[in-house]
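pinned: reference chain
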Amino acid sequence: MTHAEMPTLAEFEEAAEGLAPVIERTPIQQSQHLSDLLGEKVVLKLENLQRTGSFKVRGATHRLSRLTAEERARGVVAASAGNHAQGVALAAQQLGIRATIYMPLGVPVPKLLATRGYGAEVVLAGDGVEVGLQMAQEHAERDGAILIHPYDHRDIIVGQGTLGLELMDQAPEIETIVVGIGGGGLIAGVAAAAKAKARAQGEGRDVHIIGVQAENAAAYPVSLEAGHPMTITVEPTIADGIKVVRPGDVPFEMIRDLVDEVVTVSEDDIARALLALLERTKLVVEPAGAVGVAAIMAGKIRAKGPTGVILSGGNIDPLLMQRIVAHGLAAAGRYLTVLIPLPDRPGQLVQVSETLAQAGANVIEVMHTRHGQGIQISEVMLQVSVETRGEEHRHIVLEALRSAGFRPQVMQD
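pinned: its structure tokens
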């Protein structure tokens, strides 16, 4: 993208003014826990509290507001697993535009119902966003509707960038901003807006921008190294909101020029971050929205002055939340499930319980069976889940069981 095409501060300010009647100016909150870990002040930008539950409504509203009367009459079409769908649906409702959204067959029910609740027609098809996007493109060509891409359009990027503008207004001392990356629309907009705002604050002023991707869907590191967008094979990830196989062409150019660093985080890192946000800040954040926190907790971020972390969304299926909390507890060494083969005679369960109690472990769940692969005729298998106080206590509990003559086998979450 040439310098002339780069969005200006005036464009972001104009977009923010246009969005004001529709979106929330989401608050910021200082995190002492993350500040202690990073060694610098950390503030969280709570975009999980935005209307529709994510930043996507910013870009969608700005994009739709710039359609001509003739384009609005043709309607719009989009594809999304949830957040973009809700953003487009609400924007279309606000502007009186007909909207059709293609969503995967396995989309979480809350996201499906919310999208329909905003008045959009939802078509369930395929098992991923890529299939839906292809069908949305075909729909646009067939019916003349305007395709609203989730990230690969300049107007979308300018709308998302208003988030960076807000953050810089709320915390002008910020020197680093940490942003999750999927297709790249959010970080491209935030980087352009924040750096433009910093320049306006004073000569020589700049903001360090760090992007974060899930290890299992990290298209940007290889693309930046290659110098152009690369299509990758992604693995399953709980951060489905940033699971993208290829960077967008438009945001890639901006990210290449403006983003200072891109790091990746593991599934365990993300689960631990989501759990920490629940416990320490009382905030419900979806996995994709928590990757910035995950990067700090995992030691992937180097301190460069006061730091802002964008919590980009809070739309999470309660059933997924339940699984992630359990996984996060296990990853943090606070939840332990073991299989223990026992002689089939009275008193064995009592001995296990006494051993766990003496080690200070709180029993959560117990299953006792005489059936299963690997169990001898004279044995039973005990599966017990306990709450522990951390990794060190977890080892203490296991050692206590072994010292008592038991053979615990740790079950992986």
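why pinned: The CA atoms of residues 240 and 256 lie 23 Å apart. The mean pLDDT is 92.
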